Structure formats: C-alpha cells, structure tokens
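Reopening this ticket.

The earlier resolution said the output was attached, but the attachment link was broken on my side. Pasting everything inline this time so it's all in one place.
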Amino acid sequence: MTSRTLVSEMDTSADEAVVAYHERSKHHFHRYAAALGYMDWATQPDPFRRYAGADLVRLPLPKLGRPLPYWQLYVSASVPPMPLSLASVSLFFRYALSLTAWKQSGDTKWPLRVNPSSGNLHPTEGYALLPEIEQIGATPALYHYAPREHALERRAVLNAARWSELTEYFGEGSFPEGSFLVGLSSVQWREAWKYGERAFRYCQHDVGHALASLRIAAAALGWTLVLQGNVSDATLANLLGLDRDEDFAAAEREEADLLAVISPNVAVADITAAPLMKSTPLTAHGSDVLWQGRANTLSPANSVAWPAIDTVTQAIRSCASTPIKEDFAGFPSADALLVTPNSGYIGEAERTAERAIIGRRSAVAMDGATAISRATFFRMLGRLMPTKENQAMPWDALSWRSRIHLGLFVHRVDGLVPGIYALIRDPLKVETLKRVMHADFSWQRVPDCPSGLPLYLLQKGDCRTLASTVSCGQNIAADGAFSLAMLADYMDSLATYGASFYRNLFWEAGMIGQVLYLEAEAAGIGATGIGCYFDDPVHTAFGIETREWQSFYHFTVGSPVDDNRLTTLPAYDLEEE
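Inline output:
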C-alpha cells in the first residue's frame, strides 16, 4: 500500500497503536470491521508479482510420487538431507509456495497453492538468497519465487565479497556450508482490496501459514529452518530489495515480514544463536550489486485508503534486538504426546508427505455428520505442541514459548463427550487460564489421552450453535468434527517482546492452522481457517473479561463437501504425475 497521512494513533506509543488497531479491527454482532462493503472487480489485484527484466531461472518440475511417509516429517533425523542443488531447490519451493491445482467454473479460473490464503488472495511473496549453485547461478544472488511459472527471478547478483559479508554477520560457525536464506513479505493491498481494515490480520495469518509451509518443505528434504527474529525490518527490506523506489515506481509496495535460515546439514541448535545482523546494508545499492527487474502493477487503481493499516504497520516495524531465548523445560516429550505417532492416518499407500502437502485444500463446507476417532483427534493436537528442548517440527523454527492456546468446540469425536475443551500449549499457563476463564468450568483432564497432552474438558454439552454463532454465523464451524478459537496471551506478549511481536502472534496462529491442514489431509478429512469471527463474543464464550487475552484465529476440521460444479485442472501444464 502507498504511504499516506497516518491517523491519530501515530501520535501514541507503538504498543498503544497496536492495541488501538486490534480493537478497531474487531467484528461485533452489531457491526463488522470497516471494509468497502462490496467487491470492486475493476481494481481486483493480480495474485502474481513479477519483476519485468529480471532473469528467469526455470525450475524443473519434480516428478510427483516421493514415498516419504507423512509421519516422518516430524522425525527430522530420519530424513537424509538432500544436497543443495537445482533439483532440491525446485523440490523445496514445490512443497513450500507453489501452485497445487487450478479450479474452474464456467469461464472463470483460479489457482490454489500449497500455502493457503484468506480469500485466496495471496499477499505473501517469497524470496531466497542462494549461494552459487550449478544451473541456477554462477554467483550468489537474491531471487524472487514466481509460483505460476515455478521459477526464480534473479533480482540481484552478489559478488563473492558481498556473500561473505552477509554470511559473516551470522558469526563464525553459525552459517554452515550449503545453507541459504528465505524471506517473506506481504502485499497488503491484496487483502485490503476485499477485507478493508482487518486485512493486516489476514496478511499475518498468511505469513504464519507460509512459515510453517517453508519449515515442512525443509523437513521433507532433511533440512532445518530457524526464524531469525533479530533482523530489523529496515535491514530485511534492504536485503530483499523492497526499499528500492526505482524498482517499484507505481507498483504496490511489499512489507518485509521475516527472514529464516535453512541448512541442509546441521542441527537446529547450531544456527539458533546467530548474533545480531549489522546495520550496514547487506545488499547496498552500489556498483558491486547488480539489480534486475521492475515490479509489475497489480491493480489499475487503488483509490481506497486504509490508514489504520498503515498505522499498525508503522507501529510494528521492528528495530534489531537481542534474539529471544527461552527455556522449554516443563514441556512434554514427544513420546508423551504421541503414543502411536502414525495412528489415525488413512491407508499406508496414500499417506505420504507429498500427498498431504500437495493435496491440501481448504474445505468450503462440512457434511455435519462424520465423526473422527479419538486417536486422530489426540494425534492432531499432539502435533500442535512444542516439546522439551524445542525439538518438535515445525515449532523448532520458533524461539519463544507458546503464546497461542486453543479453546475447542468438540462436536463429533468418537468416545469424547461433546463440549468445550481447552488445549494449553504452555504448561506454565494452565493456572493463568483457569483464573481468567469462567469460574464454573470443570478443567477435567481428558481420560485416555496421551499423558503429556494438556487437554481439558471445560464444559459438557452441544456447542454447535455457539461455535457457529461466534464464527460470524458460519455453519462450517458447527458441521465439522471440531472447531476451535486460538486464544493469544496478548498483552503480556506486547509487554515482554514489544509491539512488533503482535504479528508473531498471528504467525504462530497461522502455523497451527497449517499443521491442522496437513493433519486433516493425512487423516482423509479436511479443514479450513476462519478469519471472520466476533472477537468479544468469543471471549465471552470462554468467560474472558480482560483485554489480556484475545482470540486471534479460528479453525474447523471435519469431512468436507465437494462442490461438483467446479473442475480441477493440473497446477502446471507439463507436470508429470
């Protein structure tokens, strides 16, 4: 979005601006957050960013059919790391950010992707800083991933000195041979076009989904991924070329979101302690860096201003800081969470990692009848838990203790009474949530669930109407096996980490959603994220009266109902099945 005069919140502190935005972007029974109120098709943004004039490096389409079992994604030591090459980079992006299919209805056709997006609008853009790799580039370079073409656009060519300078910022021994960097950014206008002021939230959900997708893709190749939380937004924007006015002109700008290190051959612990990146521009706009390409314009016009989005964006732009390092003592072991890690999945021949990753879809309706087994339910929740020493994928990508906890509406799980449940993803927060929720909640540990799974029955009873009502009246929240609200430890997070951590809460929520998507796919059912919910009525449903805790995302899991009016087409014309 273009720069505009900011509203009065800019005169307050960053934390106050974040809190003010969160309040004004809530949906209420009597009103929704500010939005246009209709679909302005004349200004619908292009879902594909391209850089005209940049060299296009085509990635060979990997032949589908890799036999890696789905459960092995979560046992990283069991997957031999692939060497960094044209083939492995292609497979990484195929699993992380590529197209998965095209849908068609009449003359209208639209793509689906590995990483889901609210409204299928896809504000998230992916970048990679790669070393010299045969058949990709003879020198290190910055690339933009083009999902429609499954190709890399070479945005900047770095000489050897620049690459050494960049990797040295991670400290001796902290940037292993064969490692590379990935970055994500957001074109906020893509979401604001439809959703108005609430769009900032949806952009950050999407970043979280994409971050989990990147981590899962890395796991499938035997690689590690660690989020670098100590890089300022200004440094990241410079590193990804997003601050280059001459390359954007009238094109919609991108907001720098995050940077992660991917390594094919070291343990996570060896790259989590990367020191602060220096303030010196890493890809300075000088003669030793050759820049290529100019961004395409996504909409013919952008006449609607949403100053509240600009305000919160400015508030969360972070300065570089000391990396977060927290103790994960007290978290359960993997064995205590998943007694039978591969139970509850569909047939042996079908439950491959690739099938779950490429086959992921967002359900548009649930059948309102199908139940799931307790084993499936417990395993899904177990996958959402960090573990001792922070070794559970994808949570090993994050350095902070869990800040998102789940309020569950259980409808159809064999052997479990319907009702409201809670999954507390940080053992230290159980007593806190007991104090802030309804005093008459029972907090009964669920019998027969894995010993390490902190799952509690709060209140028995049919909660389908409640689940639907608080999710903007959407039946899909009641018609699945279960749905949930993601409750964030909100004000304490801002006080502990600063205003910029506001978006991290959405990222963590999006990651939870991505794991649920793949878990549902592997179990032969479906799932979908729900960004439209009535914020404060959700809090009332759980008895939360303080602003300290806020709902950040909703989700539903169950048996999907297919729309037979739609035709499914291959993601890529030349794809080998």
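Reporter confirms the inline version is readable. The chain is about 25% helix and 20% strand. Residues 1-11, 272-279 have pLDDT under 50 and may be disordered.
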